[in-house]
Structures are given as C-alpha cells and as structure tokens.
Amino acid sequence: MTFWQYKFSTWTGWETIQVNETIRWKTNKTINKEPNTISVDDIVFLFRSGNISQRNKGIYFVAKVIDIDFDSEHPINLKILKDLRKNIFHAEEHGFSKVVKKINALQMSGKYYKFQNDDNPKKMYQQIIESNSLSENIQDNPDIYPDEVDSSLSEGTKTKVYVNKFERNQKARKLCLDYYGYNCQTCNFNFEKIYGEIGKDSIHVHHIVPISKIRKNYIINPIEDLIPVCPNCHLILHKKNAPTIEQLKTRFK
After folding, report:
1. Predicted TM-score (pTM) above 0.70
2. The predicted structure's pLDDT at residue 211
3. Which domains occur in the chain, in start order?
4. Per residue in 16-33, pLDDT tens?
5. Is 100 helix (H, G, I), strand (E, B) or coil?
6. Closest residue by Cα to residue 148 from 57, 234, 64, 43
7. Disulfide: which of 32, 69, 97, 124 matches 92 by Cβ 3.0-4.6 Å?
8. Sequence-distant (≥ 6) Cβ neighbours of residue 69 within 8 angstroms
9. What's the distance, Cα to Cα, between the start and end of the chain in Å?
C-alpha cells in the first residue's frame, strides 16, 4: 500500500461530500508511470491549499483508491474514509512539517505527491484515522452538547491529541445559565415547557466570539461572552454571514 497526497484549492463539491461517498478524480496521466504508479487500495490524503487563511489549510479528507481506469477522463475513483473538515489536520503541528513543505512545493492545485518512507505516512494515517472529532464524540454520546466539557474559567486551552481541540468549559456554562436561565435568549424557547421533565435543564450555550477565532487561552466572562440559545438559533448564529444576537431577536418581536 502506497500513500499519496492530493492538493486541491478550487475543487467544487468538496463542501457537500460525505464519508463512504465515491468521488472521481481527473488527474495527471503521468501518475500511472513508474516510479509513481498508483494502485487500488492506496491511501490518498486530500490537502486543501489556495487563497485561504493559514488555519484553513490542511488535510480535509482521507480516502482510499477503489478503482483506476487511465483511459477515462476521471481515471481514479476514491472512497472517503475520514472527514476532517470540522477538525482540519495540520500536519506540521503533528511532526510532519517536511511533508507540508513538499506539498507546498507542488505549487499548482491538482498535483499528487507520493510519500517517501522518511515522511512516515503510516504514522500520520494512524493518527488521523484513530482521532475522534468533537462531532463524532457527540454522536457517540448524545447527552454531550458541543459547548460542554469541563475545568476552570480558563477557556480555549490548546490540547495536543491526534487533532488540535479547544477546551470548552462546564463551569462557565453553569455560571452563564445561573444568570440567564434556560430560555433561548433570541426566540424564548424553553425545553422543559415544551417537552416536560425530560427537557429540564436542556439548552445550548453560544460563544458570542467563537473559540476557534480567538485561538488562544483566555479568561472567559460567563455573562458577557456566553449566552443560552436553542439549537435552531444556535445553528443560524454559526452560519456564514450570520446575524448578531440582537439582529436575530428582532425576528421574534
């Protein structure tokens, strides 16, 4: 099994791709010539580059080659094994800076790079495949909200696991809810009122300034930095070009 890195920047459709989905790739025909032969069951890391922020550059997907036909326009079929869009894998932060330099040296989008043994691709593959993103943890335990974890009032501490995550704070959540209560602060929805006892103490807590944008450890103010919102409003507040809390409130007046 050989490991490859594919560099893309303008590929349309990557936003909607799903795990286990098969995608067809149009690529340089020279990839099938020695010593760069690509084979079925090879692993491909899909690396996004282009005119985006540094934090948005990195490995977005891990895929497996399932079919090859170099006589067709799209000769390589890949099956998506791992979706990393919510926790982009920044290889340089995990000891693979040499690989990143080699990928950047490709310059153009649409280029493949064949990993060398000293790149240690098996180790990188293992780290990525064995890592669990926050969204996957939530699916395993539906009682965990995406705004909960634990610890003191210090938020955003960067922890090295297989992917970088930012600690979310249970104590800050409690202090926020002690102040505001369990009604959504935009639409006034209350879980207990609608669902009864099973909905008691249920609500999301929204970071008014997302931790991912702060990118550092900071002392959170549970009253000024956090606010309770229902899942529907929370989703809208995280949309691109999302309204502010006050703008969203006006829709319910």
Report:
1. no
2. 59
3. 3-131 (3.10.590), 140-252 (no CATH)
4. 888 888 887 766 655 655
5. helix
6. 234
7. 97
8. 75
9. 60
